[in-house]
Structure formats: C-alpha cells, structure tokens
Design goal:
159 residues; alpha/beta; 5-stranded parallel beta sheet; binds 4'-phosphopantetheine
Length: 159
C-alpha cells in the first residue's frame, strides 16, 4: 500500500489543489492532505476552517484524508508512515523553491517527492490571488469550489 501526503497552506484550497488531490487519489492507495499550522503567518482561514473546506471538497474521495501538522513535514511523514510527498508544479517559477524543499526533505528523511504538473487552466492560480480577487469582490467562481467561494464572501463581509 502506498501512502502519499500532499502538504500545503491551503488558505484557502483552490480548484488547482483539488485537481492535484483527485489525480493523486488515482495514483496512490491513500492520500493525506496535510494543512500546515504556521504560527509565523497570519492566515485568512484558521486551520480548522481550512480543514473543513478541504473535507467538504473531498467528501466523495474515499481514499483521501484531511489532517493538519505543525513543524517539519518529515516528522509528519515518519509519524504517519507516509511513502511519498506529492507536490503540484504550476510553472518554472515554482521549480526552484520546490527543488530546494524536496532536496531538504530527502536529506532529512530520505523521502521521495513526486511532482505533478498542474492542469494548464490552473497554472496561474494561487490562494493569494484568489484572496485578492475575492477581497475586491471579483468573480472567483471558476477558481474555487462553490463552498469556498461562499466562505470567502463571508470572511470579507465580516471585515
Ligand atoms: O502551500 P504552501 O505554503 O506552498 O506549502 C508549503 C509547505 C507547507 C509544503 C512547506 O512550507 C512545508 O513543508 N513546511 C513544513 C516545514 C518544513 O518541513 N520545512 C523544512 C523542509 S522544506
């Protein structure tokens, strides 16, 4: 059985993330989507909200689980008997930092990182851009699932 982890901030998850989750769920027996709890950043959505949005989006995918982690990814990998890290690559600009992270993780724990090319229709998509567009009331309906669009609207109407 091959267990994969797909780590990220997911603040919030986008259709680009969902694309990688769905495709990895076909390749691996189990996929854990691991939401980073990063006390150094101040996210729009707290970790519980990010986890809930991901759970809703993946409820039909039986071999996908949503979890969260703090600290090093390799410790999560070890603690959960994960075989492989999955990352999405959108463009050449992602490559350098992803290469560094994969090499560091491999140094720390000999874990393999597998890269999947994001569908070209999502190659420009990022959580930060989605937040910016949504903050100024732009249309993000093609970029995130409907429940995430709703959560964004609620967040920005609160502020
Ligand atoms: O969605 P993001 O913010 O691009 O995801 C980055 C993430 C969470 C994958 C990365 O920051 C990470 O793995 N953080 C955990 C800390 C860690 O293990 N650092 C050392 C190796 S890179």
């Amino acid at each position: 059985m091959t267990k994969a982890v797909y780590p990220g901030s997911f603040d919030p998850m986008t259709n680009g993330h969902l694309d990688i989750i769905k495709r990895s769920a076909k390749l691996f027996d189990e996929v854990i989507v691991a939401v980073l709890i990063n006390s150094a950043k101040s996210p729009l959505f707290c970790v519980e909200e990010r986890v809930t949005l991901l759970r809703e989006a993946t409820k039909e995918l039986d071999n996908v689980k949503i979890d969260s982690f703090e600290g090093l990814l390799v410790d999560f990998v070890e603690g959960n008997s994960v075989d492989v890290i999955v990352k999405g690559l959108r463009a050449v600009s992602d490559f350098e930092s992803e290469l560094q992270m994969a090499a560091m993780n491999r140094k720390l724990n000999e874990v393999e990182t597998v890269f999947m090319m994001t569908e070209t229709e999502y190659s420009y998509l990022s959580s930060s851009l989605v937040k910016e567009v949504s903050r100024f009331d732009g249309d993000v309906s093609q970029l995130v699932p409907p429940h995430v669009e709703k959560a964004l609207k609620t967040k920005y109407s609160e502020g």
